[in-house]
Design brief:
It contains 2 helices and 11 strands, in the order E-E-E-H-E-E-E-E-E-E-E-H-E. The longest helix has 11 residues. It is mainly beta and about 150 residues long. Strand 7 and strand 8 form a beta hairpin. The chain is globular.
């Protein structure tokens, strides 16, 4: 039996629908505490991230030009934003040919049942410390799917 056979499935995406998210986890939503990054970029987007190292994340792009990527700070992570409406849906980084990611909980639909957001300060970590931390916390093998050209 798959560890995600009884998973909680969350859907979400950007405001205009160009980016869609599917996040599944076996973790109880109430046990998941969104991490509100205190960097200036995430604060301006009111981002708070959830992840599960045993979870799954798929980001579906309606077209190849729907996605905008943005790097800042240490340039270690890449923020995924809608190129049309500007909503920040997730953050990813690549390490050893794997794409790890965390979902902006505020881009998910409906009540999630997550705990209250807590502050996180990745900007206080060196780039290698960020990679080590994120490799343990974030969703591995994030799937990016483009539907149209």
């Amino acid at each position: 039996m798959s560890p995600l056979s009884n998973a909680f499935a969350f859907r979400g995406g950007c405001h205009c629908g160009q980016l869609r998210l599917a996040f599944s986890t076996a973790l109880e939503p109430a046990s998941m505490v969104p991490r509100a990054c205190d960097c200036s970029f995430c604060r301006k987007h009111a981002a708070a991230y959830v992840s599960d190292p045993a979870g799954r994340l798929s980001v579906t792009l309606q077209s190849s030009d729907a996605l905008r990527r943005y790097r800042q700070g240490s340039n270690t992570a890449e923020f995924l934003l809608c190129g049309r409406c500007g909503v920040l849906v997730a953050v990813v980084f690549e390490h050893h040919a794997r794409i790890y990611g965390a979902v902006n909980a505020r881009s998910l639909e409906g009540p999630t049942g997550f705990g209250s957001a807590v502050p996180a300060s990745p900007q206080l970590l060196a780039a290698d410390e960020k990679v080590a931390r994120w490799s343990q916390l974030w969703i591995p093998d994030v799937e990016l799917v483009t539907l149209g050209a």
